[in-house]
Design goal:
By secondary structure, the protein is mainly alpha-helical. The chain is 67% helix and 4% strand. Helix 4 packs across helix 5, helix 4 crosses helix 6 and helix 5 runs antiparallel to helix 6.
């Protein structure tokens, strides 16, 4: 029996991760070309959505949104370090992927494009890169 190359498996898992990430952020229910540039929402005020959640006691929703934006990008940072990128490069890639998602959400009207998400996603990429770089 032939052994599988672990890098093929890791690339496959990463590809699946990207598909899931874009499915839950951009290509969700309501996605369609008929909404192109019609329903996009832009929020450039930092933490505008999070403060009311805390005040209203909606801690699970706060945790889901705030921490979720970080956690969903940990694999990206780890993968980039695994492929030989530096932490600085990983941060730039994380920023680019997050910016791409936020831009697509705005273009297709499938979510609120928020500055918070850009910051938290990039932070998540940095954490993932930092964690793996300590083990390699």
């Amino acid at each position: 029996m032939k052994k599988k190359n672990p890098s093929i498996i890791i690339h496959g898992i990463f590809s699946l991760y990207l598909l899931i990430l874009f499915r839950i952020t951009v290509f969700r229910t309501g996605f369609g070309f008929q909404n192109l540039l019609q329903n996009g929402t832009l929020n450039l005020t930092l933490f505008q959505e999070y403060i009311p959640l805390i005040r209203q006691g909606q801690l699970f929703r706060f945790f889901y949104l705030f921490v979720g934006n970080i956690i969903w990008f940990l694999p990206l940072g780890s993968y980039l370090i695994w492929t030989g990128k530096t932490k600085k490069q990983a941060i730039y890639y994380g920023l680019f992927v997050s910016f791409s998602i936020e831009s697509l959400q705005y273009l297709f009207g499938t979510g609120i494009s928020e500055l918070d998400d850009l910051i938290l996603n990039t932070f998540g990429t940095w954490i993932g890169a930092s964690i793996l770089s300590n083990f390699l």
